[in-house]
Amino acid sequence: MRIALFGTSADPPTAGHQEILRWLSERYDWVAVWAADNPFKSHQTQLEHRAAMLRLLIADMDAPKHNVAVTQDLSSWRTLETVEKAKQHWGEKAEYTLVIGSDLINQLPRWYRIEDLLQQVELLIVPRPGYGIAETSLEAIKNLGGKIAIATLTGLDVSSTAYREHGDTEALIAPIVAYIHQQHLYKCQDATTKRFQLR
Ligand SMILES: Nc1ncnc2c1ncn2[C@@H]1O[C@H](COP(=O)(O)OP(=O)(O)OP(=O)(O)O)[C@@H](O)[C@H]1O
Ligand SMILES: O=C(O)c1ccc[n+]([C@@H]2O[C@H](COP(=O)([O-])O)[C@@H](O)[C@H]2O)c1
Fold this sequence. Notes:
This protein is α/β, with parallel strands linked by helices.
C-alpha cells in the first residue's frame, strides 16, 4: 500500500492545497492530510479551526477514489513523530511518501532528526511557482539520505500568506471563505477584502 503524507499549516488551506490533494488521490492508494503547527512559523488561527477548514477543503473535492482523508491525529510539529504515528496506523510494510512543495527544500535539512525521517519515507517535491528546484538543494537532501521524486504537477500560484496579508480570496474556495466569515477569523484580512470590494 502506497500512502502519501501531506501536512499543512492550513492557515487557511487554499485551492493550491486542494489541487495537490486531487493529484495525489489519483496516484496513491491513500492520501493522509492533517493541519499542523510549524515550529518555524507562528499561526494566526487555532489548530482546531485550521483542521475544520481542511475538512471543508476535502468535502469540496471530487476525489473519485474517495481515498483522501484528514487524519488529524497524525498532527505533530515534528514530522518524524507523524511518521511514527502513521506506522502505528498503517503498519511498517506500507510505503510512505512525504509530500512537500519546492519552497521547503532549503529548510528541510533543519527539520527535527531529518536523517532519521528521510530513512523512513520517500520525498515527493511539488514544484511551486517562484521556487525553483536547485540541483545543489537536491544534492544536500540526497546527502542526508533522501530518496527524491519530483511531481509532474506544478502547484497553483496561490498561498495562505496571500490571503492573510492581502485578503486574496482568489486563493480560497467558497466554503472556506464562508467558514472564515462565520467564525470571524482573520479579522484584519476580512476588513481588507471588504475595502477592496467597496472600491
Ligand atoms: N501552490 C502550491 N504549490 C506547491 N506546493 C504548495 C503550494 N501550496 C502549498 N504547498 C506546499 O504544501 C505544504 C503546506 O503548505 P502551507 O500550508 O505552508 O501553505 P502556504 O501557502 O505555503 O502557506 P504560507 O503562505 O502560510 O506559508 C508545504 O509543503 C508547501 O510547500
Ligand atoms: O519536523 C520538523 O522539524 C518540521 C519543521 C517544519 C515544518 N514541518 C512540517 O511541514 C509541514 C508543512 O508545514 P507548512 O507550515 O509549510 O505548511 C507541516 O506538516 C509541518 O509540521 C516539520
